[in-house]
TrEMBL record, chains A, B:
Binding-site list for Zn(2+): 263, 267, 293
Top-level class of the enzyme under EC nomenclature: hydrolase
Protein name in the entry: Metal-dependent carboxypeptidase
Family: Belongs to the peptidase M32 family.
Biological role stated in the UniProt entry: Broad specificity carboxypetidase that releases amino acids sequentially from the C-terminus, including neutral, aromatic, polar and basic residues.
Cofactor: record remark: Binds 1 zinc ion per subunit.
Organism encoding this protein: Kushneria marisflavi
GO biological process: proteolysis
Length: 496, 496
């Protein structure tokens, strides 16, 4: 017989799951549908929901149930769910409500300042609100680090990657630092003089959307349980039963939106295929930010920019947008795999992207640990850009340290998950290839199902039933290992 | 100094207002954006929200505050708010939470069944889910009737029209039964041989939408605080700060969608112009369903189908859709005022519309009182259609008893408010004309502001600060009187 205390605990989290559904839909609507005049009422309603969810998570009754539950009476999956429930309650309980509220206010002010300071290249104007965000994040890090018995930055990192130590992260990133600059300059050198022909617009929005939907279907996206819409910044939101992804179309270009759609479809299929039996519980959620990004990058980078896939894209592009020289198959491959170091992270190619992450990681870690102050950021940024990508960004705050929104609301510790995801994607692809020797041949024939089924079984259907290291080891036979990423980049950019 | 008990009560209702915001947006999304596979999770989330709101409304703390508040310490508006708060709490306290949740789930299932059964003319397929909805509504009616000491159907009616007795409604509807059939056949006779030229499609959806938005702007709709979208069954939803209205376009016809938009714009302007100071409180809500419908019908029937307005529509129609014989000014008036009894309520002309309501009123009242069962509805429907409109609807469920969405979620008692609204609209128009003698001349010149400002002052800005009879009497000098409606119909259809 199942522990009734545990069942009551599940009941509370089912309730929280449904509240989160309302928040997810209101959040999606805010970014895709809502007229500007609705913002104040929406913000109030969403803040009220946050308060409600926090109250439900930290209620004495929740803690009483957690203390009373008998783990030995539970099966393995229930124990995993209990572990995730406990983590979530502890995470909510650790933060003083006054600090949470101060962060929310400071974050809103800083983001508002960012929206005007960035276009004006106004670093000085940004500093006062940003300094307050950093001060509060340091306070949060101090509280979390004390409770967890770890360093301050590690405590923030673990908000996004539970269980990831700074030592493990440094091992991985130090490895990356060894070979990335050399590989990058080799790749740039190899592509010299082979600039691809650029697509010539205008490209109609409806035509691009139909093309995107066709590719989404090919990738297995279930339109009975999701939609594709438009927002200023592409994202994947909604709930597993109704996944809402967005893109932004440009009339002068067509590949950025399409690759963005492929990326978000990776996030979306993960969500759509989380374990049905655990849909309403923490154990049924996506594992972590890095694992999530590994799915979007499996779709976008491993599959979406592979020569095999890009060649299949050609007839679809022509059917949707008409033919033109840029849609020559070899040219499409060159376009998708062009390596060109630049100032902007979100526009970066697959090889330079990790450099943008290393730079941010070093700065945010030093900032949280109190080794540098906000005034030191531009110099550190310039030095790292020079060192890693050979680019001069002095005085250009807009395309330098003011380019990202992440720090404005104190999301320190998030950036590393992008590159961890890229590495994991390469490792998963290698494991899938080994398990399914026909995988590449089948993709070249227009059938991605071997890859998608392998991901479904080994990642999507696992939800949060396993901890991340266990999930990776069971799927690939070893811990996260950046060597697969190096091999992938070498194969595609130096040997392809 | 204001009573702090009262302030705490307001605080709880501010919280409820924000919860309702989330529910309103989830409900709008469900009908406009949500893919079908999202239905189950959405229904669960919305049911959970209902439970939460019900718990908040009926919490011991709410009742303690209500018992402790000192009405004499409050100003007039606060007292009105307290009255509305008390009504809402009492209304919620009557209903067992288990019944509320069962109704929400059954309603969602029945609506889903309706969406497939209606196009398939599948009455038998609809019955199982509908029978459950009726069973739960009868249970609700029994509970409410016992508490209020009234009949079961009256108890449901008062959910939509607080304070309206069945006796008063029967007085009004029996009056209507006396003169409506005669007026209807006279109007049909008078129009014989004057069939208007019908618009020839196809009409593009985007063109129709632009035309609709232009008319909405002319009617004062604020697009900073609202949107126009598409749904199967047009409605006006969202929240006062962000009003979401919908229509349904046909490619072979263009006036139905446009008149629907004008109708929903009446609902929308009421919502957008509710008193700002009471936005988050019950006193700031729209007064009742009949008053709401009086606003949409002031827009659609009193203004939108008047010869003065229709003549102004001509150049806009031509600009949006191109010219054609049907867009001749006199022909447009004939089109807008054509009396032609038909099967579909939402397509009915102004004169036959009340017959559709009388039919539904008789059936739903007998159904709730247990005098008939769901299996009896088609026969009753056929008989009444034959009697009231002389039409045969046997075997045609799609255009018969399956045509409306209302009964799928148990909204019995709602239909009468449509005709009460039509009557009130006529009475309000008469009062506005008397207050503003230039009103018709100004409309004929293309300026509806005298009418709109009068409605804003006398209805929209009043929210629920007055009870319905008081609101009507202050605005028009007398209680609701169907004679204005009869005069309006005679003037337009027999003397115009
Ligand atoms: Zn991503
Ligand atoms: Zn209406």
């Amino acid at each position: 017989m199942t522990d009734t205390t545990y069942q009551q605990l599940e009941g509370r989290f089912t309730r929280l799951h449904r509240y989160a559904h309302l928040g997810a839909m209101a959040g999606w609507d805010q970014l895709t549908m809502m007229p500007t005049g609705g913002n104040e009422a929406r913000a109030e309603a969403m803040a009220e929901l946050s308060v409600l969810m926090h109250e439900t998570l930290t209620a004495p009754e929740t803690r009483r149930l957690l203390a009373a539950v008998e783990p030995s009476s539970l099966n393995e999956a229930q124990q995993a769910n209990l572990r995730e429930i406990r983590r979530e309650v502890e995470d909510a309980t650790i933060m003083p409500p006054s600090l949470v509220e101060a962060q929310s206010l400071a974050g809103a002010r800083c983001e508002k300042a960012w929206r005007t300071c960035r276009p004006n290249n106004d670093w000085e104007g940004f500093l006062p609100t940003f300094r307050e965000v950093v001060r509060l994040s340091r306070e949060e890090a101090r509280i979390r680090a004390e409770a967890a018995g770890c360093s301050r930055y590690e405590a923030l990192l673990q908000k996004f990657e539970p269980g990831l130590t700074l030592e493990a992260l440094d091992d991985i990133f130090n490895d990356l630092r060894q070979w990335l600059p050399g590989l990058l300059s080799e790749a740039v050198e190899r592509q010299r003089g082979q600039d691809p022909v650029l697509p010539q617009g205008p490209f109609g929005e409806a035509d691009q959307r139909r093309l995107g939907e066709r590719v989404m279907r090919w990738l297995g996206f279930d339109f009975e349980h999701g939609r594709l819409d438009v927002s200023l910044h592409p994202f994947c939101g909604g709930v597993p039963d109704d996944v809402r992804l967005t893109t932004r179309y440009r009339s002068d270009e067509c590949l950025t939106a399409l690759m963005g759609i492929i990326h978000e479809t990776g996030h979306a299929r993960y969500e759509q295929n989380l374990p049905e039996a655990w849909r309403r519980q923490p154990a049924g959620r996506a594992r972590s930010m890095a694992v999530h990004e590994s799915q979007s990058l499996s779709f976008e980078m491993q599959l979406g920019r592979s020569a095999a896939f890009v060649r299949q894209l050609r007839p679809w592009l022509i059917e949707a947008l008409g033919d033109q020289p840029a849609f020559d198959a070899d040219n499409l491959v060159r376009l998708s795999q062009q390596v060109r170091p630049g100032l902007i992270r979100v526009d970066a190619d697959e090889v330079s992207y990790p450099a943008h992450i290393l730079l941010r990681y070093d700065i945010e870690r030093a900032l949280i640990e109190g080794e540098i102050e906000v005034e030191d950021i531009p110099t550190r940024w310039d030095e790292a850009m020079q060192h890693l990508l050979g680019l001069d960004t002095r005085g250009n705050y807009r395309d330098g340290c003011l380019q990202d929104i992440h720090w404005t609301d104190g999301s320190f510790g998030y950036f590393p998950t992008y590159s961890l995801g890229a590495m994991l994607a390469a490792q998963l692809m290698a494991a899938a290839r080994q398990a399914e020797p026909q995988l590449d041949a089948r993709i070249a024939e227009g059938d991605p199902s071997l890859l998608l089924e392998w991901l479904r079984t080994h990642i999507w259907q696992q939800g949060s039933l396993l901890e991340t290291p266990e999930l990776i080891t069971r799927a690939t036979g070893e811990a996260l290992n950046p060597e697969y990423y190096r091999r992938h980049l070498r194969a595609r950019y130096l040997e392809g």
